[in-house]
Every structure is written in C-alpha cells, then in structure tokens.
Amino acid sequence: MNTRTANYCLKQGFVNIKRNKLFSLASIGTIAACIFLIGVIFTIIINVNFMEKKVEQQVGVTIFFNEGLSQQGIDDIGKTIKSDSRVKSYEYTSAEEAWEGFKKNYFKDNPDLAEGFSKENPLANSASYTVYLKSINDQKAFATAMEKVQGVRQVKYSNPTREFLTNFGKMLGYASIALIIILLGVGIFLISNTVMIGISVRRHEIKIMKLIGATNSFVRAPFIIEGVTIGLLGSIIPLVIIRLVYDRLIDLIMTKFGVLGNSIPFASVHQIFLVLVPLGLGIGAGIGLIGSIVSMRKHLKV
C-alpha cells in the first residue's frame, strides 16, 4: 500500500467516525470507562505489590533467645541464619541496645521516668536477631524452621500483614475480572455497530470500488482504521485523567492522614505508567480492531 492509498484510507476512517458521531461517542465513552476501570485496578494492584515489597525490606523476622544463653550459642544461631538461602540480611540487637531504643521511643518526652531503671535493664532477656528475607512469602516457613533451632525461645513475624496484602490483591483481581470482561464485550459490540453503520452508508460506494478493481484490503482498511482510532481515543482519555488525578490523590492522602499517610509507600507515576500506557493503548486498539473485524465479517461481503 503506497502513501497515497494509505492517506486515502486514513482519511476515510476519520470520515466514518465523523459521519457516525453518536455511535462513535458511545463507543469512545464505553472504552474510556473500561480502560479507566482497568487503569484504577492496575494502579491499586501495583501499589499493593509495591507495599508488599517494602514490607519485605522493612519488616523482619525477630528471633529471641533462651534466658541465659551464652554468646557462643547466640553466634551459632547467627551462623544458622546466615546459611539459610531465604535470608537477605540480618542484624543483632543486644539487650542494652534494645533498652536504649525502647527509651528513645517511649520515654523521649519524660526521660526522668527511665532513671528508675538505671541499675537494672528491664529488657535483659530481649537480645535478638532481626532477619530480613528475600521474599515475604517465606516468613512462615522460615519462622517454623527457626523455632526448632536449639537456643531459640520465640520467633515473631508479620504474617497478618503479608496475608492482608496478598489476599487483598487477589480479591481485587478476581472481583474486577467480571467487570472488565463485561465492559470489553460492550465496547466490542458498540464498535462493531459503529462500523456496521459505516458499511451500510458506504455500501453503494463499496460496490463501485469493487467493480473498478479495488482490492479487499483497500475496502476494509478504512473500517479497521475507524475501529482502531475509536479504541485509541477511548484509551487516551482515561490515561490522561488517571495521570492528572494520581499525584493529587497521593498528596491528599499524605496531607489528610499525617503520619499514617507518610508511613504508607506508594509507587511513583513513572513506575505505574511505564506499563499502564502501553497496556491501555494496546487494549483500546485491540478492542477497536476486534470490533471492526467482527462487523466486517458479518456485514461486509468482499
């Protein structure tokens, strides 16, 4: 297909959209709603995964020792931790360091209250290893294994946090699949009807083109361009809206929820749109292409 033919097909595709304004707008609106829903769900899922990764980095498994355990016993436990392939890093906290940290957190406004414990460390048996794993999903198995190690008194880990993030992501994904399928189906149906109207309007013109030797691809190209263009327009609109709203929403959360908002990690716009833009445009163009093909197979006999 040469440049002149391509320009003609492109022009006719836009003419078809303009000619069928009502159906075109309905198709664009439906696709926009579909892509917007996909974009919102995708953004939430990305942030849930991002939070889960941050939890992996920030929340560790804490291992406490039996009372009176010797330094050699503590070192042996450290060697066991180091040899585990699931471990990313670990650090040792002595009883003295645990008490100093406790005082900073709970007695920072009333340091005089801590003076009553100056002769005796109330956290004398709180020395521990804090272990950070490569995957948060390994916490339970790692904790179970460490509980069997000689000299280990207790193992604490954030299993509820992991389960909440994992289950929330799964629930969101399952609940959204049905809605997305319905909207995709409606989008394809509307685009196929829009293209069908264009075929009906140009039926006489198509017959003439076929009589003078027009190829099947030449006849079909404007309708494919029409469907794909509608799909792309329907996907660009929600992508722009999500892009404008995302930063403002994050700022609002940070402002309104204070410390809680600052403690929740959010994925950056770049991380989200690096995948969301090609995904959204691809789905929009795909819906348009499928709708065009469905309509041409049913109504365009060339």
Q: Indicate the overall shape.
A: rod-shaped
Low-confidence stretches: none
- Structural class, from secondary structure content? alpha+beta
Number of domains: 2
- Widest sheet: strand order? 2-3-1-4
Q: Biggest β-sheet, characterized?
A: 4 strands, antiparallel
Beta-strand level of the residues, as a percent range?
5-15%
Q: Name the average pLDDT.
A: 76
How many helices? The count is 11
Subcellular location: Cell membrane
Main location: membrane
Transmembrane segments: 21-46, 174-201, 222-246, 272-294
Protein name: Cell division protein FtsX
Could you describe the 3D structure shown?
The chain is of the alpha+beta class. It folds into two domains: 3-55 and 165-299, no CATH class; 60-157, Alpha-Beta Plaits (2-Layer Sandwich), CATH 3.30.70. The chain is 74% helix and 8% strand. The protein has a four-stranded antiparallel β-sheet, sandwiched between helices.
Which tags fit this structure?
11 helices, four-stranded antiparallel beta sheet, Alpha-Beta Plaits, single chain, ABC-type transporter activity, 302 residues, ABC3_permease_C, membrane, alpha+beta, rod-shaped
Give a quick precis of the structure.
With 302 residues, the chain is of the alpha+beta class. Helix content is 74%, strand content 8%. The chain folds into two domains: 3-55 and 165-299, no CATH class; 60-157, Alpha-Beta Plaits (2-Layer Sandwich), CATH 3.30.70.3040.
